[in-house]
Automatic annotation (TrEMBL):
Keyword match Membrane: yes
Molecular function terms, GO-annotated: protein C-terminal S-isoprenylcysteine carboxyl O-methyltransferase activity
InterPro entries: ICMT_MeTrfase
GO annotation, cellular component aspect: membrane
Transmembrane segments: 45-66
Entry keywords, A to Z: Membrane, Transmembrane, Transmembrane helix
Main location: membrane
Compartment annotation: Membrane
Taxonomic superkingdom: Bacteria
Keyword set includes Membrane: yes
Membrane topology (UniProt): Multi-pass membrane protein
Upper taxonomic lineage: Bacteria, Bacillati, Actinomycetota, Actinomycetes, Pseudonocardiales
Name of the protein in question: Alkylresorcinol O-methyltransferase
Length: 173
C-alpha cells in the first residue's frame, strides 16, 4: 500500500508535468498563430489527448484495483527511464522554443530546427512518449496498461508522424 501511494504521487507528478506542457503549448500556439502558423492533423489530436489521459488513469487503476506489486529490479530502472523521458521532452521543448507544440503547427518562413536532439533523431519527443508509455506503468508492474498504451500509441504515432512529416515537407520544400 505504501508503494502504491508513492506510485500515485509519481503519476500525479507526471500529470502536473503534462499540464505544464499544455500551458507551454497554448502559449506557443498563440505565438505561432500571430505569425501566420497553420495547424494540421486536427482529426487525431482528440484521440491523442484521450490516449495520454488514459495512460495516467490506467496506471493508477491497474495498480490499485489489480493490487500490482512494486518489483524493485523492474521498478527502479523504469523510474530512471521515466525521468529520462521527461528530460528528453523538456530538451525538445527548450530547443524548439516557441515552435514546440502538442499540436502540429508550422509557421511560414521559419527554418526547420536541426539542433539538440533533432540532429540525432527526426522526432525525439516521440521517443520520450514511447519510453514513458511503457516505463511509467512498469514502475509498478502495470503491464496491461503498458501493453495497451504501447499498441494503441504505435498506431497513433504512425498517423501523427505521417501528418507531421507532411506538414514539415510542405513548409520546407
Amino acid at each position: 500500500m505504501v508503494s502504491q501511494v508513492w506510485y500515485s504521487v509519481l503519476v500525479g507528478l507526471v500529470a502536473v508535468e503534462r499540464l505544464a506542457e499544455l500551458v507551454v503549448a497554448n502559449r506557443n500556439l498563440a505565438w505561432s498563430r500571430a505569425r501566420g502558423g497553420r495547424e494540421t492533423g486536427l482529426a487525431h489530436y482528440p484521440v491523442m489527448v484521450v490516449l495520454h489521459t488514459g495512460l495516467l488513469a490506467g496506471c493508477l487503476l491497474e495498480v490499485w484495483l489489480a493490487d500490482r506489486p512494486f518489483t524493485p529490479w523492474l521498478g527502479w530502472p523504469m523510474v530512471a527511464l521515466v525521468v529520462g523521458a521527461q528530460a528528453l521532452r523538456w530538451w525538445c521543448i527548450r530547443v524548439l522554443g516557441p515552435q514546440w507544440n502538442t499540436r502540429i503547427v508550422v509557421v511560414p518562413g521559419l527554418s526547420r530546427v536541426t539542433d539538440g536532439p533533432y540532429r540525432l533523431v527526426p522526432h525525439p519527443n516521440y521517443v520520450a512518449v514511447v519510453v514513458e508509455g511503457f516505463a511509467l506503468p512498469l514502475v509498478h508492474d502495470a503491464w496491461v496498461t503498458a501493453l495497451v498504451f504501447t499498441v494503441l500509441n504505435a498506431g497513433l504515432l504512425a498517423v501523427r508522424i505521417r501528418a507531421e512529416n507532411d506538414a514539415l515537407r510542405s513548409a520546407y520544400a
